Amino acid sequence: MSATETKTVAGEKQQTIDVKGKIVEFMWKLKRDGTSDRTIQNYARLLTQLHRKGADLMNGDSVKDVIAAQEHWSTSTKALVSASYQKFAKENRLSWNMPKYRTCQKLPFIPLESEIDALISSCGRHISTMLQLLKETGMRIGEALRLKWTDLDTERTAILMNNPEKNGKPRMFRLSNKLLSMLNNMPKQSERIFTAKSVSNFERSFSTQRRKTAFKLQNPRLEAIKFHTLRHWKATMEYQKTKDILHVMQLLGHRNIQNTLIYTQLVNFESSDYYSATAQTCEEAKQLVEQGFEYVCTTPENIMLFRKRK
């Protein structure tokens, strides 16, 4: 290697070190401002991705060129990356006119309950317990990872969310006996229920188990189920059942009803098929309700009829 080539390589290494230092400095500023760890990690991931694709993060025009050149990126991705760099540029007092990428809102994927249950039953203890929790409560994955054992009220079969994300409202959720049992069977190794160090670690583990289950069951739709999919599913099901937007707003912890409307204008299930079940005693009826069945009527023979969408 010639002296010129050696000098070039050394210069590139130094530039990489400088960029990493700027990103770390930026992350620390966000941390001091109270930004959530997950948001900070997302900023760092997107900025690092820009740098790896050849963008000079200290040059706004270079960043624009790199973003525009990514033909495989959707408009929404380009808008997200641009907004992330906007924050970085502001913190570093860089000249930057953010490009205007118009995003088209898409309806999120809403799986069948049977598909969710298939995933839950096939995953390991930690992942299956998390999925059941997200299914029943509609929590964000980041909120669930913040839960402590002291938030679990076994006597009232409830759990408290006192540390919400995105300026959400604190709330309390009633749990099914199934979920309560799953939580109680989790190892108590720390003050937190789930011991994953970060959301990304948990997501990688889930991705592996999800891929294996989709292949085993020959159902590619399972690959589309993310942790946040269960939040959409819960909000949609609750709105279809109650037609009460304020109830769904409270369930999700939203402070702005416009955010809730995104979750509820999704799918019309009026023609969906149902599972049906009957109960003759209060205890049987209670068990059906805990399983997600809704009461329909009582026959002249005093048999209670229940139903649940497939």
Question: How does this structure look, described?
Answer:
The protein starts with a helix and ends with a strand. The chain has a 3-stranded antiparallel β-sheet, with no helix packed on it. Strands 4-6-5 form a 3-stranded antiparallel β-sheet, with helices on one face. The protein folds into 3 domains: 3-91, Orthogonal Bundle (DNA polymerase, domain 1); 113-231, Orthogonal Bundle (hpI Integrase, Chain A), CATH 1.10.443.10; 274-309, no CATH class. Strand 5 and strand 6 (304-309) form a beta hairpin. Helices cover 55% and strands 9% of the residues. It has 13 helices and 6 strands. By secondary structure, the protein is mainly alpha-helical.
Order of helices and strands: HHHHHHHEEEHHHHHEHEE
Summed up, the helix count is 13
Strand arrangement in the largest pleated sheet? 1-2-3
Strand segment tally: 6
Q: Which architecture of the largest domain does the CATH hierarchy give at level 2? A: Orthogonal Bundle
User: Considering DSSP H and I runs of 4 or more, what fraction of the residues is helical?
Assistant: 40-55%
* Biggest sheet descriptor: 3 strands, antiparallel
CATH class of the largest domain, please?
Answer: Mainly Alpha
Q: How does the helix and strand content classify structurally?
A: mainly alpha
| Arithmetic mean of pLDDT | 87
Keywords:
310 residues; mainly alpha; DNA polymerase, domain 1; 3 domains; three-stranded antiparallel β-sheet; 13 helices; 9% strand; elongated; disordered N terminus
